[in-house]
Amino acid sequence: MTTTFPSLLTGCVALLCGWVLVGLAGLLRPESVRFAGRTLFTLGAALGLGLAALAGASLLSGGIERLILPIGLPELPLHLRLDPLSSLFLFLLGASSFGISVFAGGYFREGEGTAPGLLCLQYHLFLASMGGVLLANDAYGFLVAWEVMALSSYFLVTTQHRLPEIRRAGFLYLLMAHVGALCLLLCFGVLQGGSWLFTFHAMRAAHLSPGWAAAAFLLALVGFGAKAGLVPLHVWLPDAHPAAPSPVSALMSGVMLKTAVYGMLRVGLDLLGRPVWWWGLAPLILGLFTIFYGVLFAAVQTDMKRLLAYSSVENIGIVFAGIGLTIVFAGSGMKAVAALALLATLYHCLNHAFMKSLLFLGTGSVLHATGERNLGRLGGLIHRMPWVAWLTLIGTLAIAGIPPLNGFVSEWLLLQSFLFAGRLPHAFVNLLIPMGMALLVLGAALAGYVMVKFYGIIFLGQPREASLARAHDCGWLERVGLLWLALGCLALGLFPLQVIRALGAVTAQLIGAVVPQASPHWWLLAPVPGRPVSYGPLVFLTATTAVVLLTVLVVRLTYRQRVRRGPAWDCGFGAVTARMQDTAEGFGQPIRHLFQPFFEIERQLPEPADREPRYRIAIRERIWRLLYEPISAAVDRLANTAARVQQGRISVYLLYSFATLLVLLAVALIS
Amino acid sequence: MKAIDWITQVLEMAAALAAAPVFLGWVNQCRAWLQNRRAPSLWLPYRNLHKLFHKEAVIAQNASPLFRIAPYVVFGAMVLAAGIIPSMGTRLPLVVSADAIALVGLFAAARVFMTLAAMDVGTAFGTLGARREMMVGFLAEPALLMVIFVASLISSSTALPVITEHLVSGHLGLSPSLAFSAVAFILVLLAENARIPVDNPATHLELTMIHEAMVLEYSARHLALMEWAAQLKLFNYVCIGFALFLPWGVATGHIGPEGLLVAIPALAVKLAAAGVALSLIETVSAKMRVMRIPEFLGTAFLFAVLGLLVHVLLRT
User: Fold this and answer.
1) A16 within some domain
2) What is the least distance, in Å, from the CA of A575 to any CA of chain B?
3) CB-CB neighbors (< 8 A) of B66 in chain A
4) Fewest CB within a 10 Å sphere: which of A92, A305, A415, B61?
């Protein structure tokens, strides 16, 4: 298994350095969109493709490579390691960043906040730091990369820093990132277990008492959960994603959230050794709640990028529920099902990276073409922007879990692991499993609702504003980027068996078991041996296409009536205007009405006699009032109390020094 | 896979295509009798389809290609679904590739395309119908899945024919968990097929309509396909019900012509009985307000979850 010759790892490190160099090159001509925007971003994309190839090769070989670089702290050089888990996430980073970077090459224009060259530096530093997080094999290197990632993405979020709400979103993001980082710092402090060695190797060898191990796990859950957007730590996400430029949103949602998942898997299933089953309950329950919470808020959004951000919260919920399930099973000694649950989790990470990036980039094109993020001012764009509309449709269907696209595969796998959980030794968990299944399928169905709203309101119907008639389709670089991600969604959906075989090395590394293939056919997914459970997306697609084409053919041959265009019928009502369509608020109204207790709704209704009737509604999360406002008030109070010490007169400060000296002397005398 | 299996496969799809309009005609006939009306002909749905196919199609000026593709996708999905539900035989080659979860996914695909097409022209009714359809769907779809999961847990498979074979093998009375599921299933069936307490297929009254609002902009062959797909959907749901709760008479194991000799009349008898039951339900219940529908479906979902919990409790 273990190879000592560090070829692939060296290649990966070289590519990460390449990203940094590309970023620095942006400073040569920071104002040139052509150089910094087009050329460098395309170059960065090529490096991403290289990274995906190297990581893919490493994943398929299943080997582990280590490398120690003589930089870093005096006692602690930089340890790097490429194993199946990090290869998988590096592949995810490389492959999805290729599409995003190509798109970004055609996306950034002049006069939009930060200069393109600076943006190029921040963007590529962000990419390289994510790679660093995935490769680091010691806590110091990990945390440095983690912080660079947080800071570079902070600057990317605040590209339009002249707008106050974007500065606020950036601040919130930075704050939550640091709360999370603090927890991680403590977590690693616990993990070293008194050896004061901060390499991951030493942490694996450390023997923690059960209490400390649980504490480390919970700290990791909070730390990585804050980065991933686990409820209630998700509050930064719906603000930061819309604030960032679309390629950055795609990168943050598609890739950065996954680095947190990587960290959770690394700590929970690798560094801590064999997990205890009840640790899994926390991510499982929080994850299930996150699914439901995220999708409900997604359904009532009116800003298209906020909607997608809440949808990311939902998907992170699915991933964490999968992690929780894996830990419960692995801790109960059920390795086969644990491997299945882990496989579903990893698969969903890959899927989400492609489909969510695709959707965010699609909204970016719409934003460029129309200048609007508000769903209530869009509509009918399928006529003006066919490329964006049809490629985004693939992402929409994928995330709604429609077979044979990729979102369905991971949900199918996760449902199978729920279904065939068998009998767990704990009665309470046995009852929790069906409830979890119910929440998962409810969340999946609601995601369909959200996606129909998203797609239908942006791309279908009549344009809600006259200015939309000037909307234009995206340029060729953007098309290539979208096409790459859409093809990724298709490939992940149609060839699950090949993906699962590649993921086998990861489940073998973390769980010690591989999901078997119980069918002799290369096109048929049959993950549970001894049980007649299978799914063959290629056959599914072929059969559907065949039936549809046959219908078209028969109808064409038999009935040669022509098609005439006429005004819309609409039950015979005359004058149909664009204002008569559902708004985003209207489409989400049933959800708002049904799940009212979840929302804090502020509504202004017009009076019957109003000359200029206005309807306004604002929906906030209750969590602000229930959790964050009390915390911020308490912090304020504490700060005010502490501020009393600060008098601003030199004599008082001298007195403080004097008193401190006296106390220290007293301590010295006594001891 | 033997040739006879493929023949069964094609036969099932063809039978569904042929029988779905008659089944709707039968339900309408029973309903008319129960309501003391003169019943329309059993073949009326056929004549209607024939008429529609021969008309000139009129499409709204701003309809996109999606609008024209959707009827074919919806229809194709329903035909394919008919091929994965064991209505007559359980040896279906396609089932290996598409289990019950994929079946629900197929229904979801049809729903998504239908709602997107409804939003495409951008009329008030279209979007209203789409919104209401999704409101029905987001509760009905998980409820259906949970119903199927109970049966899957009993027979340790998510493939419908395996479930049917396991249930028909008889070493099992109607378990309490299946009783809960059956109630949930009937509620879902009514809601998903736009039947009376949820939607009224016979009206264009804007306050109540769901399905009709979505297909309002369609005409001629596109409308015919949408209508036929709706009839197929009803047929498919009834057949899912048979597969889960009344699996008797289905040709299990390796079937030949002799197996079908039993299976076809058995299916006909079951369908006739189901038609009577459906029309009875529709006659005795009143159409409910649209905002009450989630309560109705919430009940279905809870029943389905209860069925699952009962199963887990009784097992341990």
Assistant:
1) yes
2) 10
3) 382, 393, 460
4) B61
